[in-house]
């Protein structure tokens, strides 16, 4: 049985996409998923899939069910516990930064083409740095994520790909939940 992590884009950020985590857990339970757990109030769901459905099919089904049952339209990006383990191991800024609050990962719905990736450049005057690694962007934001121009909206505009960002502690916690049990 594969453990998946659903990263819901924009949940409980502002008033437009508010979803109670108990309601979200119930929705995932109702879809036949097992061992459903949420993390924080920002749309992170760890769950087990009893069959071998492809990730794209799972994500589309979850998006549709959230729209139908909760009236919220959003993007769902899926990862597995194994893929988060690779994410944790691949961060190029770990040896340079002691404060995990300055490390983030932007998860992309798919890997950008070379043409799309070329549009992702650090804005002038920005202290943040990034490394694009497949369908993820590792961020080092020395002035804090709230002050960087390299935020989720910037990435989505430049790449034209749905994305959602999580801080380093959340990525680690989600990996731990997926590895637990």
Can you walk through the features of this model?
By secondary structure, the chain is of the alpha+beta class. It has two domains: 2-80, 2-Layer Sandwich (Alpha-Beta Plaits); 83-166, Alpha-Beta Plaits, CATH 3.30.70. The protein has six helices and eight strands. The chain has helices at 21-30, 55-70, 81-90, 114-118, 152-159, 168-179, and strands spanning 2-8, 34-38, 44-49, 76-80, 103-108, 129-133, 136-140, 163-167. The chain has a four-stranded antiparallel β-sheet, with helices on both faces. The N and C termini lie close together (11 Å). The mean pLDDT is 93.
Short note summarizing the structure:
This protein has 181 residues and is α+β, with helices and mostly antiparallel strands. It has six helices and eight strands. The protein has helices spanning 21-30, 55-70, 81-90, 114-118, 152-159, 168-179; strands at residues 2-8, 34-38, 44-49, 76-80, 103-108, 129-133, 136-140, 163-167.
Tally the structural domains: 2
Q: Can you tell me the overall shape?
A: globular
Q: Mean pLDDT, nearest integer?
A: 93
Overall strand count: 8
What fraction of residues sit in β-strands? 15-25%
Work out the helix count.
Answer: 6
Rg value: 16 Å
Q: What oligomeric state is this?
A: single chain
Second CATH tier, the architecture of the largest domain:
2-Layer Sandwich
Poorly predicted residue ranges = none
Largest sheet: 4 strands, antiparallel
CATH topology of the largest domain: Alpha-Beta Plaits
The first-to-last residue Cα distance is: 11 Å
> What's the helical proportion of residues?
25-40%
Task: Specify the CATH class of the largest domain.
Answer: Alpha Beta
Structural class: alpha+beta
In N-to-C order, the SSE pattern is EHEEHEHEHEEHEH
Widest β-sheet, arrangement of strands: 2-3-1-4
